[in-house]
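So, could you explain the following?
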Amino acid sequence: MDSTAQRAPRPTGRTVAYDPSVPAPPLHVRAAAVLEAGWTGTSTVPSRGLYPHQWSWDSAFIAIGLRHVSPLRAQTELETLLAAQWADGRIPHIVFNPSVPLDAYFPSPDFWRSSTAGHAAGAPRTVQTSGIVQPPVHALAAWLVHLADPGLSRARGFLARAYPRLAAWHRYLLHRRDLGGGGLVSVVHPWEQGMDNSPCWDRPLSRVTPAPARSFRRADLDHGSPEDRPTDLDYGRYVRLATDYRDRGYADGPCDFAVEDPAFNALLIASEYALARIGRELGAAAPARQERAERLTAALVERLWEPSAGMFLCRDVRAGELIPERGVSGLVPLLLPNLPRDLAATLVGTVCGPHFGLGGTTRLVPSYDLLGDAFDPHRYWRGPAWFNTNWLLERGLRLYGERGRADALRRGILHTAGASDFAEYVDPHTGQACGATGFGWTAALTLDLLHDRPAWDRNGVTAIKGEDRV
């Protein structure tokens, strides 16, 4: 044997031959664990630390994913939210858990005073809520939850009980919130639209005198970096708007902040289509809802489409003009089945163009124009990518035949959700996690994309793998 031959070095530590390292659990197991950790017994919190109560559109998105784990829990999620509905039809944006300390979240129940300040509007007496609303995703969620287990849904009377409440919710929006007189719904607070401090709100918010900083304490900064959250100035304006709305008994009418938002109205239209499906399931003819959805689509195009921007823009109702900022809200109408084909093609071009960069500079669609002066890749809704808006756009791309782009976006959502530990939102360029991790709707929509690859049809909302057409 050659004495110069090298021996393999002897291991310096003990190796484990019969207990190899355990691989990471599959993505669907991790996502389901997030929803399990957030489950309270009747609903799911978006985040145990940052958002310890039930949020309206969060619960709708969570139910869409939860249906793949437990259709019963998904139904319960929506039923809990609907049980807090006000007599005037509004579904409040927060349903408060009485076991959570008041200082864990601001604005807390003692700020909103729903049972007293909201008495004239029919706020419930047995549960405390906020007085504003959030985007109406609920009928769409209810229909998809029904499809997950129609037998269970029918046995429990899920749709039969949900339908009148959902119909009352839509009536409230259409009759009380048409503040611009053009048939579209207005939001009266940035929190109602859900994209809280989007640059799209800067112009109408500039008219609002902020509440004094000493009059409130921000609990959100206990759980996130100030550089990622709304500024104190913006927060003061949010508090002022909410205070004024509360002090007039949550009555709707002319106000300092009233905006027609493309995403809010697009989700109402999608839910109108879903309500039509629910009505047919319950044996009622529903041509009026289908016709209303088509009229609302026409109003959306007439009032909010801006050809020079290649997308929908928000309308400042008080100023009577479009707001010249490109936010992801203006892309969400791509999920609607009856857009003019040339307009839909333009939207696809904008999604993939330099302002949003999908498939080029970004893997997920950012919340705001990459070229905009206010773009910030980390600050809440001023640039980061969010998973719920990307889930909606994935369906819109698929609906209009952009299968390759939809598949790539789906892969991007799934990869980024897993790599970021189901972050609340991420840097659109790097995928770096921002905000909370283990976030409810990120995990839920990950589950939905893992279980189904819906093809959005031209006549309704979605087709689910060989099940009934939506």
In short: The chain is about 40% helix and 5% strand.
